[in-house]
């Protein structure tokens, strides 16, 4: 598949310019046309900041110190400034719809506010478009719901409104930051199915930020695993999930529950904790927690390189010696209860 979005060498900084801390260092990834791409990793690994940087919506206190963005237009990859693509090719769905939706606007006006201002749509045209979009995202009574206020809707319906808002600008890429985390399990499933349907029907590319490997297994074609502000491995989901090429990804996958995992069984955890943004070791940042680390790992520059015999790319120099018991391919790739989205 041909590339649609390419991020290269993204660096984000916080703190004083003279002594900056880098929560995201030299992160890059590429998303193809129509592809679902997952960005996974523990809390604090830099997933959300990376996604927000793509549309130039960094929280206060975080600044971009490097990185390029390219988006495909008319058959060629073209460079853009990060904020420039927000609502112009790239849409975003946030984790918490209540804080992301303006409470003083009716749902129908919210959905089309962006394109209406930009393209000068009439009120009538905007309303009709809003109702169509609300129907597309599965609102049960789109005409009536277009007249409601966000607080009158359930969490699941609010998330549908946010997806409709993102679609209103006709993006080619939808960025989703933990789009189901704030919802209860049954509603999570409905939203994941909706995103899958929209992706298929519109031929959209989707980037999912999630700590839930089940979501990645179920919806994504390719994945990047982040650790302490860097991508440590990237590849096709079925490869990374069954033949991980970085000890951190292997540990993360071993700690992932499958449908056969008894509820009361403790998960095999990776010993130790992820270092904070201001507290990162030299060389391989995972080395202090890694059972395969050599003294040399502490002096290594971070390079995501091709792995002999694997289609994945990995930052681990010990990839050939990883060994360990093979991961249970069937358990890791079997459909989740409730079926495929
Ligand atoms: N507004 C901010 N100011 C300063 N530092 C920040 C800010 N937001 C995030 N950080 C730093 O960046 C790190 C990465 O944050 P980010 O939200 O991207 O992590 P994440 O992987 O998405 O985790 P989570 O799943 O918990 O959101 C944080 O651990 C924190 O050190």
Automatic annotation (TrEMBL):
Major localisation: membrane
Q: Name a Pfam family for this protein.
A: oligo_HPY
Q: Tell me the compartments it is located in.
A: Cell membrane
Output the SUPFAM superfamilies linked to this UniProt entry.
P-loop containing nucleoside triphosphate hydrolases
Gene Ontology MF terms: ATP binding; ATP hydrolysis activity
ABC transporter domain location, by residue? 5-253
Superkingdom as given in the UniProt entry: Bacteria
Keyword Membrane carried by entry: yes
Give me the Gene Ontology terms describing cellular component.
plasma membrane
**Keyword annotations from UniProtKB, A to Z:** ATP-binding, Cell membrane, Membrane, Nucleotide-binding, Transport
* UniProt-listed GO biological process terms: peptide transport
Membrane topology of the entry: Peripheral membrane protein
State the family it belongs to.
Belongs to the ABC transporter superfamily.
Matches recorded under PANTHER family: DIPEPTIDE TRANSPORT ATP-BINDING PROTEIN DPPD (PTHR43297:SF2), OLIGOPEPTIDE TRANSPORT ATP-BINDING PROTEIN APPD (PTHR43297)
Q: Please give the name of this protein.
A: ABC transporter ATP-binding protein
Originating organism: Acrocarpospora corrugata
